[in-house]
Amino acid sequence: MGKAVPERMTAIAITEPGGPMVLKPQTRAVPEPGPGEILIRVKAAGINRPDVLQRQGAYPPPPGASELPGLEAAGEVAALGEGVGRWSVGDKVAALTPGGGYAEYCTVHESNALPIPHGFTFTEAAAIPETFFTVWHNVFQRGALRQGETLLVHGGSSGIGTTAIQLAVAFGARVAVTAGSEEKCRACRELGAERAVNYREEDFVAAIKEMTGGRGADVILDMVAGDYVNRNYAAAAEDGRIVQIALLGGAKATADFSRLMRKRLTHTGSTLRPRPVAVKGAIAAELEDQVWPLLAARKVAPVMDMIFPLAEAWRAHERMEEGSHIGKIVLDVA
Ligand SMILES: NC(=O)c1ccc[n+]([C@@H]2O[C@H](COP(=O)([O-])OP(=O)(O)OC[C@H]3O[C@@H](n4cnc5c(N)ncnc54)[C@H](OP(=O)(O)O)[C@@H]3O)[C@@H](O)[C@H]2O)c1
């Protein structure tokens, strides 16, 4: 038998759209797991850039999702909704949550939770789901990166970027990245990037051409858009795939589409949060099969930047927005 579940919990609310200080601890009802859902007693929750956008009022939760921020959490199963088959109370899980991770308890569909890989702490485990689901779906499923190909990752030192580097290297690809400082470039090289381009000083198109003997990158994972779109078309190899996961440099672009035709490029993209539970469950199943053994063997692991207590979520957001972090920022909820 697990511990009793209380009726009330502490959660971090977005009290109004605005800066980090609008994140405040509040007392809320503990959510009830619906059919097929589990209730997680959260021990740690990951911070992601989309949480910052949500706090600013620019990324509202999809219909039916918690109003509370938090797209990933790790902890113990505290209660089971009707029909849950896989999990038992007390199991240790890391989950991709539709929201509500910045709290002592949150609910998630059982198929969107995975066992905590052997040897991982709760804070490490909470840093896994969002970036591993995103990278798996965009680099491997949509981008179809294969062994021996070259991946270019923009924002190489981000939570997403540090995961993309490690997974691509683990599956036998060559990796180049862009990042905004020498320190960030060094961190990316230590994770296995063959080439790390400080974009403030060097042109990434020339660098990727040089690295690949003029061929270009087979897959480009891009979170910038804006004026990177045209440069990505220039940096891509024939039959290259460009996968858009964010628009940090702007949603509008002017591009030379003759490159797209001449090189037979594919430009695609996706957002993870609004996808149906079943789609996320299918990503989870592939991750468990193909990536969880790599985590258990510590061949890949989340890069941990800093850990803050739940009540100081505002400091965690401040750190992310200040922009010098490398890897993942996590909240300790225990
Ligand atoms: N589509 C999806 O499903 C999905 C899912 C999760 C996250 N995302 C997106 O993926 C991106 C990375 O997420 P994360 O949680 O890993 O965030 P993060 O760690 O804060 O990374 C953001 C990165 O972008 C770089 N960057 C480049 N241009 C920037 C600009 N104009 N403003 C701010 N940063 C800029 C930053 O480093 P330097 O510029 O210093 O190199 C930083 O490394 C975010 O934009 C997020 O919204 C998308």
Please describe the topology of this protein:
Elements lengths: L7 E7 L8 E7 L7 E10 L2 H7 L16 E9 L11 E5 L8 E5 L3 E3 L6 H5 L2 H14 L7 E5 L4 H12 L3 E6 L2 H9 L4 E4 L5 H8 L5 E6 L5 H8 E9 L12 H6 L3 E4 L7 H14 L1 H5 L7 E6 L3 H10 L5 E5 L2
Parallel strand pairs: 8-9, 8-11, 9-10, 11-12, 12-13, 14-15
Antiparallel strand pairs: 1-2, 3-4, 3-6, 3-15, 4-5, 5-7
Helix pairs in contact: 3-4, 3-9, 6-7
How does this model look, in words?
The chain has 334 residues and is α/β, with parallel strands linked by helices. 29% of the residues lie in helices and 27% in strands. Strands 3, 4, 5, 6, 7, 14 and 15 form a seven-stranded mixed beta sheet that branches. The chain is globular, with a radius of gyration of 20 Å. The structure holds NADP nicotinamide-adenine-dinucleotide phosphate.
Question: What's this entry about, in short?
Answer:
The chain is built from eleven helices and 15 strands.
